[in-house]
Amino acid sequence: MTDPTNDHGAGPEKNDHGAGPEKNDHGAGPEKNDHGASPEKNDHGAGPEKGRGIFDKDLLDRCISCGFCLPACPTYALTGEETSSPRGRITLMRALETGRLDEDDPTLAEESSFCLGCRACETVCPAGVEYGLLLEQWRDHQWRGRHRPWLARLLMALVSRPWLLRLQGLVRRHARAGDSPAGKPSETQTAEEPASLMLGCVERGLYPKVSRAVQQLCPEVTVPPGQGCCGALHAHNGDSRTGAELAEALGERLPGTIVTTAGGCAAHLAHHLGRDRVRELSEYLDRDGHRPTGQVTVDGRRARATLQDSCHLRNGLGVSRPPRDLIAEVADFVELPGADRCCGAAGTYSLLRPSDSRAVLDPKLEDLDHMDVDFIVAVNPGCLRQLQQGLRRRRSRVRAVHLAEFLVMAGAPGAVGETGAQEP
C-alpha cells in the first residue's frame, strides 16, 4: 500500500531530493500559493497533474492544509493519525484524483468509511472548505457497486420504496393528515404560508410519537400523504445523484415550508431545495413565535435537561440556539460538555461501524453520568436511537427523548416526566 502522507502530515509527493511538497506561508499543500506557484508537476516538470474528474477541483483546491480541522475531528481524536483527519483525508482525495493512489487502495476504502461526515471541520476552517460535499463525491466514486457496504445498499433499497415507508404507518401510527385540525394557520402564520411536516424514514417506524407530537405543537402544519425518502441516506452513502432526485421529488409533494424533525434531513433538503423552504422543528417554532406551555417535572421538582446537537443541523445549517431556548422554557437547561461534537450515530455509521460509533459516544455518556440531569434531548432520530441504546447499556437513569415529545410532555396534564424508561 502506498502511504500518501509522510510522518509530519505533509502531502503525498516528494521531490528528487526527498523533500516534501512546497508549502506557502499558510501551510498550504499542493494547491497554488498566493504568488501563483504550483508545486505539483508531472515527471517532465510540465505543470499540475491532470485529474480524474472525481472531485470538484475548486472544492479540492480550497484546502490550505492549515490543520485547524484536526482538534474538531472526532476520528482524529480517537486515533491521532493524520490520515484520519479532514486534512489527511483531503490529501487522500488528491492522491486519488491525480492517480497517485489506486482506487482500490485499502487506505482509501478505510478512511472513506471511517469518517463520520459530521462536518465539524467546516465550522473551524478558515478557507471555507465544503468537506461534506467532498465526502459525498468521494463515496460516490469509492462506494460504487459492490464496494458499497451491503447494509447501506439494503437500507437504501428499502427507503426508495414509498409503499414500504407507508406500511410502517399502518403498524406504528405516525401522524396523518386527519389526526389534527391541520391547515389552520397560527396567529403568527398567514394562510399564504402553508407548512408541511416531513415524515422521516427512520422516525416513522421507530418513533411515530414524534410526528404526532408535532401535530399537537403545530396544528397548522399539514401532513401530506404518500411521502417518500428525502434522499439524505443515499447522499451520505455513495449515491448523491439519487439523493438529489429524491429531495426534488419530495419538495414537489410537500407544499410551502417543509418542517422536519431530523437535523440530517433538514440539511440535505436545504441544500437541494433552498434554505428558505426548509425549517427544522425548533427553528420553525422559534421563527413563528410558538412558545411551549407548562413545565416538565420529576419527583415534584422542575426537571433538569440537556441537549445533544444534531451535527448537520448545527454544522450545516448553523442552528443551535432555538432548541436550547425551547428546553429552557419548560425545564432547567444544563449545557452538555461537547454537545456540539458527534454522538457517533452519523446516519448509517452506527450500523456500519458499531465499535467506532460506541467509541465516539462513550465520552459523552461519561459526562452525562456526572451531570445529574433527568433528560437528554435530541433533535434527530438517529441521535435519539444512539443515545437511548448507550444509556440502556449503562443502565443510566437519564432518559433520551426527542424535542417534540419533550415539549408536549411539558404541556400534558400534570406535566410529569418519569425517568428511566426508554422507548424502543
From TrEMBL:
Annotated stretches, region: Disordered: 1-51
Reaction equations catalysed: glycolate + A = glyoxylate + AH2; (R)-lactate + A = pyruvate + AH2
InterPro entries: 4Fe4S_Fe-S-bd (IPR017896), 4Fe4S_Fe_S_CS (IPR017900), Cys_rich_dom (IPR004017), Glc_ox_4Fe-4S (IPR012257), Helical_ferredxn (IPR009051)
Domain of life: Bacteria
Its EC number(s): 1.1.99.14
PANTHER family hit by this protein: ANAEROBIC GLYCEROL-3-PHOSPHATE DEHYDROGENASE SUBUNIT C (PTHR32479:SF19), GLYCOLATE OXIDASE IRON-SULFUR SUBUNIT (PTHR32479)
UniProt function note: Component of a complex that catalyzes the oxidation of glycolate to glyoxylate.
Name of the protein in its database record: Glycolate oxidase iron-sulfur subunit
